[in-house]
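chain below, 429 aa
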Amino acid sequence: MHATTVRPISTIPPADDPTESATRVRLDGERIVVERLVVHDRALAAFLADRPADDRPALLERGLRIGLLALQDAGVTVNVDVVRSEFEKLMRQAESVNEKAALALEGTLRANFADGDGRLPRTLERFLGDRGALRTMVEELFDEKKRDSAIGRIGTMLERYFDGDASKLAHLLDPTRLNSPMHQFRQEMTAGFKSLEERLVAIEAAAAARGAERARSAAKGGDFEDLLEAMLADLARGAGDMLDRTGTEAGALLKSKKGDFVLSLDARVARGCDVRVVIEAKDRPMSMRAMRDELREAKENRGACVAVAIFTPAHAPTGVAPFNLIGDDVYCVIDPDDPDPATLEAAIRLARLLALASLVEHEVEVDAAAIAAALTAIREQLEVVRQLKTQLSSIQNATKAVWTGLDTMRSNILTRVIEAEGELRTQAG
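prediction:
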């Protein structure tokens, strides 16, 4: 409201004044126009009388505004109460419906699932109970006393196939019955073993014939040389030496092919000298005198300073196995069927040691006394080996101890050889 006309309280006539006209309220757009408004209230009149006369119109306008707003809020409160009342009524109806539905569901569940009277327990009891249909059916199927039951029919069938000598399985597995599969299998196996026996006999006869022929020819010696070549090549590679197979080549002597292998020592160890070891493979019997002569010729033919003779066990001279030092030459025994690389290694390293010791004659600075002492110790160890092998042939009860002693002596010999080689490397350095 933009303008308000209020009569002074002091001039307001009493309520029973017949000359006072009635109050009129007129709305003009957003404006509220009140004409001839008279309020009879002693407390409010006193409150307004305490205010200045100029402030009374604004205060009265504000009071009217506040009163109308309060009436407006009271109307909204009335609407909220109506909604709350309706909602509470709806909730009571829903609770009633839910209670009825719960009672109906409970009745249905009791009718179907009650412990004693429910449909499901009665149905389960009828089919799965102690006297139910399922138990009766199972008893009828697996009653061993009834031959028409399932277990009875299975038992009858098993008896027919597996029980006794008259069963079908016995007929099928009996190799003596002409119509059984095992009879045919027996015949095939018999024929197969007979054929295998014939082939083994033929192979054994052929092997014996070949062995006899090879024993009478040079082929067996060739096989022994092939075996030695592989073993010597491994030793040469490990020491940095060079190995040549020279059994088919003529040497320095006229038309002489003595010396099956030539081992050329590493030039770094030999201080630039050409140091060779000649090796003879012997797979035939020879006398010691003939062997010495052949080794002397082989050294001369191949320009070697030391010779090594390697025998098979069947043709080795007495007292040579596993290896021995005879004069300035090394004798060794290698079994072609069970070659021992350690024995061959010891023999070759001993021969290399002897070859390096021979460099004294070429004014190479080595300790000859140390080399001689090492060779003397090696000879002593080899003599112990020979004595132990003699004991082994005469004392059967000490076999294990003697073989242990042999292994120990062989290890000692290798140790002596390594010490002598170390002495040579020290002097060469």
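The first helix runs from residue 42 to 49. The beta strands are 24-28, 31-35, 242-245, 261-264, 276-282, 306-311, 323-326, 329-333.
thats it, cya
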